[in-house]
Amino acid sequence: MKKIFIASISMCFLHQLQAQDIFDALRFSYQPVTTGSARIQAIGGANISLGGDISSSFINPAGLAQFKTNEIAISPGFNMNTDKMLYNDKTTAGKKNKMSIGTSGIIFSWGSRFKSNPSSTAISFAINRASNFNSGFSYGGKNLNSSYSWKWIEEIDNSTATTIDDIRKRFPLGASQGYESYLLDLDANGHVISNASIDKNLDQQFSYQTAGGITEAAFAMAWNRNNKFLYGVTIGIPIINYERKTTVTEKDGTGNTDNDFESFIFNESLSTKGTGFNAKLGVIFKPVEYFRIGFTFHTPSLISLKDVASATLTSNIENLSRRLNNDPNKPTSYTYNTADINSVAGIDGGENVYNYQLTTPWKLGASLSYVFREISDVTKQKAFITGDVELVNYKAMSYSSSENVPNPGDAEYFKSLNTSIDNTFKMGFNAKIGGELKFKTLMARAGFNYMSSPYSKDFLKDSDIKGWRMTPSLGVGYRDNGVFVDLTYAHGFGKGFHVPYSLSSADFPYAKDNYYNGQITATVGFKF
Amino acid sequence: MATRILLFGLILAGFSSCATYRTGQTPDDVYYSPAREVNSYVQVDKDDDNRLSYNESNLEDRRLRQQIRDSRFRFEDDIYWNTPRYNSWGWNTWNNPYNTWGWNNSWNMNSGWGWNNYNYGYGGYKGWNSGYVCIPGGNNLIIISGPGASRNSTGIRYSAPIQRFTNSGANYNGKGITTGSGSRYFSGNSNSNNGTRRSFFGSGSNNNSSSNWNTNSSSGSSNRTFSSGGSSSSSSGSSSSSSGSNSGSKSTGSSAGGRRN
Fold first, then answer.
1. For A3-488+507-527, which CATH class?
2. Prediction ipTM score
């Protein structure tokens, strides 16, 4: 574990009084190869210059202008996510599978058929699964450096809270429960301390279950001029649904049954939902037969998000309460949830709700395709190869208040968070290449997708985590009698990390995450 | 909900698709998307030699539309509609009548049909109303019948390029024109097609060019709208908002409520 990497993460989590952190921003901005129909996924997700697929609505709307027919398609998929967590030289694997609906929609087209001035227009209504958040994993081990409960102490330390009532009002997601259950206490000087101290040889276990994803609905319109110049625009509505359940368990590893700490179990539930909008612009040129050149620009998405969170803490503090209260009948274990804390603080409801806004990165793409051959007789259509490159400015991610006039505290909070984003992320680079061989009604495809690390060089330079993601893919297709069926398997893999909690005053753990994401996608469609 | 709408649309499209593309090729828009012509009477293929291609269904459609469009085409002699060359000709043969449609046939070129025959040129347009029949071509007008010809004489001649019947893109509804003899004139070979004529032109081969694309464009609009979800920008009163980055340990004031148990 390298110091600089840890320090960087610490900086990122410095202001986590609210639920948001920089990795949430990345989660809602990072879109792996799951974008696209089965055909496009099979060719690495490359479709900036190729066009002619419902996926063009989300990649380069100019590609819709390739259509002079009508089409409807639906893409059910099955996602298999595996996380192999390496923590304290111990590897644990977590798996989660989930069905979802991928890129689906309907395309209408019409146009002039004068040979001297061929032109056409196409529109599409489509939805796309831009990201899947389905995962489940756990890891744990001895930690001789810190306790999870210390993060609550830092939250209090970093706040302007001066009384216990302040803490109850401001921290109903752990810190308050810690205090109420005697896990956190006040020393003789009034300082907040934790009874889960490192001299208790702590055993930690972290478990996470996440679900949901980003579904984007889009209306796109595209125009074709002389079969040489195609251009289009998409108005997208990203819909975010993220669910996370966290369970943290810490136990006394000394075997001492009278040292004021036996264990605690912390359960947190977070739901993040939101809706935003964006635009995608694109052009495709066909300078000569067989070749297509495409360019696209995706504006940032401005997304309004709402966090709803609740937490429950059960602390076993052995005889601490009995001793402090001089009452042998006092329990040795206490459980408090957010509703309990809100009740004490005079706040209605059993959840903590917070609204804010997130701006995702913009994206710029360029592409070249070679299509052999661009003729109507499908028996003479033999193959294509296409490649895309994209720039994604992850540094442009930013948080902001949902209030027109944010209070100074929120403004300062988001400012510091955005500074952390600038220091942590960089301009990302994506490369996609794929091709197809066509045998009249049958097609075989292969592709490869590379996404560079979104993290800055400084952020990762002292770790062996590279941060990239690669996704090779294979697919087959059939098209005849007005029907087309495509089937694809894409296998994404990479190395990431997971941080269960961060501290600014002490070392904290992180686990290496070797992840594998298998995606089976089938697209069924009809021409009409 | 969106999935249900898509599934419903998928089923509808499935039925529609089966009807439209059951027999022909299914277009692959990634490679090439054929224009869905409202009046599918000439299908343009981006083929090797960039020539027009025809097939049987195009021919039938073409002759029916032409007949509806212009009463001059409602003649009984359907030789031209059914001659094999009409199904298989290309530009070269079309523009060069001497290759396969020559004067050097058994018909008498002096029977009143000729290139330079004034009566059948542009200036003779009125004459068509008295029985001249033409077939539109790329640049030429083929006169296949006229007042000078006997009923059972069906000479074939080219006129000068006096008129071109372009496919104007308008929708022709046959029901709108009721005069004339109707398409049944073209439906059979009951008129003066004699064996000589048939053998002269040979059987030809049908053009097996690509399928007919759907001519019913039906570019309907969708009623689908997207709601923007329920993410209001109002801030919750129970927000944990607070910030500041005060560092160091903190002495916390007295408890207002203390621990409850």
1. mainly beta
2. 0.84
